[in-house]
Amino acid sequence: MSVGVRTTSPRDLTDLASLTCGYSGPIAFIAGGTDLIIKQSGMDWPGLVVDLTRLSEIGAIRVSDTMAEIGAATSLTAVAAHPVLNRELPVLTQAAAQVGSVQIRNRATIGGNLASAVPAGDLLPVLKCLDCRVEIRRRDGSVQRKGFDELVVGQAKTSLANGDLIARIAIPLRHGPNRASAFAKIGLREVLTIARLNLAAVADFDREARRINDIRLVAGAIGPVPLRLDTVETVLRGRVVGQQLADDALQALVAVVDNTIRGRRSRPYKRRAIAGLGLDLLQGLFGRAFEPPHEMRFPA
Amino acid sequence: MSHISNPLPILDGAEKVTGRLRYLDDMQFEGMAHAQLVFSTLAHGRIIALDTARAMAVPGVLAVFHHGNTPDNRYNSTIWFEEQEAPEDERMFPQVVRHVGDRVAAVVAETPRIARRAAGLIRVEYDILPAVIDPALALDGSAGPDGLAEEVRFDYGDTDRAFEAADLIVDTTVSTPRTHHGAIENHSCVAIPQPDGRILLHSPCQSVHAVQVVCARALGVPASQVRAVMSPIGGSFGGKAEPVLEPLCAHFALALNRPVGLSFDRGETFTATRTRSGARGRVRTAVTGDGRILARQTDVVSDIGAYCTGGHFLPGSMSQRLCRLYDVESQRFRGRAALTNTVPSGAYRGYGSPQIHAISEINLDLTARRLGMDPVAFRLKNLIDPYAVDPVTGGDIGNARIRECAQEGAARFGWQQRRDRDRSTGRLRRGIGMACATHINGCFPGFHEATTATLAVRNDGRLDLTCALHDLGCGSNTVLAQIIAEVLQVAPADVVFSAVDTDICDYDLGTRASRMTYICGEAVRRTSESLKAVLRSTASLEFNCETTDLCFDSGQVICAGQGREMTYSELAAHAARRHLFLTATETYRATANPGSFAAHFAEVEVDTLTGVARVVDYLAAHDLGRSINRQLVSGQIHGGIQMGIGFGLLEDIGLDPDTGKMKGDRFSRYHMVNAPEMPKVEIVLVERSEPTGPFGAKAVGELATIPVAPAIVNAVNDALNTELTCLPLAPERIAEAAR
Known about the structure:
By secondary structure, chain A is an alpha+beta fold.
């Protein structure tokens, strides 16, 4: 770090508040450092860098009957490997396991991924899909809670004020045999790739009747912020999984691309690719109940 | 014991993987100032005003350099010996910038940070000039007369008649991308003025002699005024073959009379050094119904970017490859190098070979398909035989074993079984493809294909090798140490390599043209034999025996008849008393240029919806004469495949057709193949020994990447029954074709 930068390593959240409440300059938080180190290397920056690695309060995962609470400084490796999250929220652990590479996941944190708010961030559509609530510690020590849409307001843009720290991410849990969730992503490579398109879904799925009682579907990397796919949800809701449903779902997904990025050069590709992604997602959600079509009938 | 073919680990490997080796950018030099360049944001423009006042006012700024206060000596950064002639269109800072990333100015300051900040304060005003991004437009005359840097034609046999007689003519146009080398270490240089007025350059380079002569031309001084020393290099692949930073850095240091360092970051290395030239080639192949190639017509345009550099060699280099792989009775070739307002091209693993092989091997595969023939059988009908004569140069191609590569490779890959499998019509489809390739061994009969090496016994019994050997990280010094060890019966680690320094080493052409093992290897083998003769004659005096009574083992000379032995260091001590010194110097000038050959086989799985192709299985069969170090051979082949998959499927710097700006100027937008993407690779070595190579060895390093892209493209076309010819096969292109 350069000469103009001050750094501090608070031991707990109280300590943090006492360090930041009287500070009026710009504040940056560093946990994994996978973004900040690259951005700040060699730059003059006259602010305070707060190291979060000693704050054990925000570095752990707590799961209760109704809620998963993930500390913002939890590494993506820890999220991906958490056995209860794996069982309850596969959409989250699958996405966490596909961010960057092993080295990046060992350092990068869930809070950092959310705070970056970049459109291609893998966890963004997932956290929106899971209807998370974000606990924010303000500079004066007060606590604020925001929903995903209140927090992520634009491309790489959040509503966080200077000194606001994402402390925890709370995700409501819904139990029962019907729950299903999945994540799918297209990148150029298997690892260390930035998503060109991704999908997250949570469903209430009656396995016996093979019926989708309810579903939430969110797409990432298609607009400045993750996009809830209401039109596709409507097509899927209440339907029985099968060939006809797959065809209709793919039609609806293609229509989403057509409507969302109408003038873009990437449209012809993404409208085809989203069909492949949709198939991956349906297979992830419904497993053996969903058989991919033998002959591809690609929507016109 | 024999040191040949041993899988000896790379000699400086431990130092590298433990992070103890210091690269140039890690080093501190006393009193060093730091330079930061300012780059053109326009593809073509005349600088009409340059406001440096705000930059000069920053405390710690020492100087600002630009076209108005630097030498206007014209040079070409590709030359490697003093009298070499090449189009001289470069200067340190041009007034007319020719590409986005061209050099506008430089700030030299006390720290890199100050230099960077001040560089951001320089304001440039341009007269915008029309820019030519498309090489076809550069050649059609509309952009002025300067678009053509070089044209090469050849014509042998009666091509017209063969085309009339043909049963089938297959006409294909293939284009290949501009790509970035992606060496781990970015470009870097340090220049230090010497007390005697000379300038010392530390540079991670491929030839200190090239650095010396290029800097001398740029500075307008005799080469003797420039001393170049190679610093440890973190990869090059051709990217550091041409001195880009060195002339500038030398001038800054001399002007300020203090050491100056200049290091590029990744973005600068992308946009302001060199790339692989782009190519667009049309091939028409005339065949008989039973698959005999009668004739071929090839027309290739290479996009060499804004400055000539070595681009004028490309058409000739490409033409040569077309005559050394298949036995074709008549061929017509036209190759042109086009200057465009884009980042310059330069050396890049294979120097035109990956491009021309992609063009010709994709065409041959489509020809086999239209003939209804197996691609392997079709190639076997036409591949060249050992010692065939290259119809253009008249030289022979050596012990060429491409047929064995194709046959043994196909058998081991299970080519036939894989071909006979049922084809899926679903979303994921598999396909197989293969390609053959050849590459050269050195520059013979071209300029200055020579190396001088000196080998001497040290007091401690180890051997001093003095030679300008530029190991670019692939372990060539390890291979040379094995060759010396084999001749002189010492341990490879007992060979001590001299600094690569123009003040110490005799002339060497540098690491290029796949010449390290074949040329430098033969040079050190001959030098070792000479030293062995010196040891033999000296020992016969000491032991008072016939030279034929002596043998060599474990660093000792042994006279079996007398039951006496002496270590090389003891012998050296005895010899010194007679004023004899155990040293030998040899200059080796190449007399041949055999081909190295390879046949590569790939299986791919293509997602017809997302357009993503993955290479799932791979086999590389190589004729390399004989391997000196199997582990390093395997490493070269793996690395070549990694690079070739990128060339075929992913990599493209993405020049904007209007602005000439590079879209893929960072690794988040320029995807190379990483370890999890690599297929399982099987290697088949065809080791039939090349008589002119050291212990029968030929090159492998550049060749390893040449057949990869066409083998993969052919596999994708097999999977989808398509005729994709525009590389790389990015998901967009595959998805579109699969529609």
